[in-house]
TrEMBL record:
The modification N6-(pyridoxal phosphate)lysine is found at K35. Residues 7-224 form the Alanine racemase N-terminal domain. Pfam families: Ala_racemase_N (PF01168). Keywords: Pyridoxal phosphate. Pyridoxal 5'-phosphate (PLP)-binding protein, which is involved in PLP homeostasis. Its cofactor is pyridoxal 5'-phosphate. CDD domains: PLPDE_III_YBL036c_like (cd00635). PANTHER family: PROLINE SYNTHETASE CO-TRANSCRIBED BACTERIAL HOMOLOG PROTEIN (PTHR10146), PYRIDOXAL PHOSPHATE HOMEOSTASIS PROTEIN (PTHR10146:SF14). This is Pyridoxal phosphate homeostasis protein. Gene3D superfamilies: Alanine racemase. The keyword Transcription does not apply. It comes from Alkalicoccus saliphilus.
Length: 225
């Protein structure tokens, strides 16, 4: 299937999820996760009109960046080692996996003059051992501590729900993330507007959109696995 055809189907499903909940589809940004696919396929995604590409490791991602460059905005969605920050910071506009102070400190240190990295705080709402992210009850203190790092802008919260055959089973995790996001947003912190929600993957994006996702990270059903 061409990315274009997949995108059409995806947009129609997003549209229906938005209709069900009275949202505007313009508020849902699609990040095409290209970690499984070739440079050619990633280029095809950009040609199909997708403006956001996501990768979860640096290996392979930087080659795609060299080939596509500023044709898209780049999202780092995987766990990020502090020592890798200097390699990625000038290529990426978004980090979805901010989960510790040391990473914020490194981003702040390596950013160029005036650069602001748009960051999502990754939250482990399901409490699964295997998932990274900070605990829900530590989110507020963590965000407040980000004032010290002017190159880090907290634009929202991110989570990965556990895989579920029936995505209804993970709805409560998405709802919980939205409630946490609202609490931070209500503080109106200049360094942490926290208006966005990065949640929803191929298997569960419709439920995530119904619960308020503004960035969905889609790999397999869009570009392939
Ligand atoms: C791989 C990955 C995705 C996309 O997964 P699909 O199920 O293929 O849509 C989304 N988010 C993260 C963090 C990932 O690692």
């Amino acid at each position: 299937m061409s990315v274009k055809d997949n995108l059409q189907k995806l947009e129609s499903r997003i549209g229906k999820a938005c209709e069900r909940t009275g949202r505007s589809a313009d508020d849902v940004h699609i990040v095409a996760v290209t970690k499984y696919v070739s440079i050619e396929r990633a280029k095809e995604a950009v040609q199909a009109g997708i403006g956001h590409l996501g990768e979860n490791r640096l290996e392979g991602a930087m080659e795609k960046y060299e080939a596509i460059g500023s044709g898209a905005e780049w999202h780092f969605i995987g766990s990020l080692q502090s020592r890798k920050v200097k390699e990625m910071i000038h290529a990426y506009s978004y980090v979805h996996s901010l989960d510790r102070t040391s990473l914020a400190k490194e981003i702040n240190k390596r950013a160029s003059e005036g650069q602001k990295m748009k960051c999502f705080v990754q939250v482990n709402v399901s409490g699964e051992e295997s998932k990274s992210g900070i605990k829900p009850d530590e989110v507020m203190d963590f965000v407040l501590s980000m004032e010290k790092y002017p190159a880090v802008e907290i634009i929202g919260l991110m989570t990965m729900a556990p895989y579920a055959e029936n995505p209804e089973e993970v709805r409560h995790y998405f709802k919980h993330l939205r409630e946490l996001r609202d609490k931070v947003k209500d503080k109106k912190l200049p360094y942490a507007p926290c208006t966005e929600l990065s949640m929803g993957m191929s298997n569960d994006f419709e439920v995530a959109v119904e619960e308020g996702a503004t960035y969905i990270r889609i790999g397999s059903i869009l570009v392939g696995e």
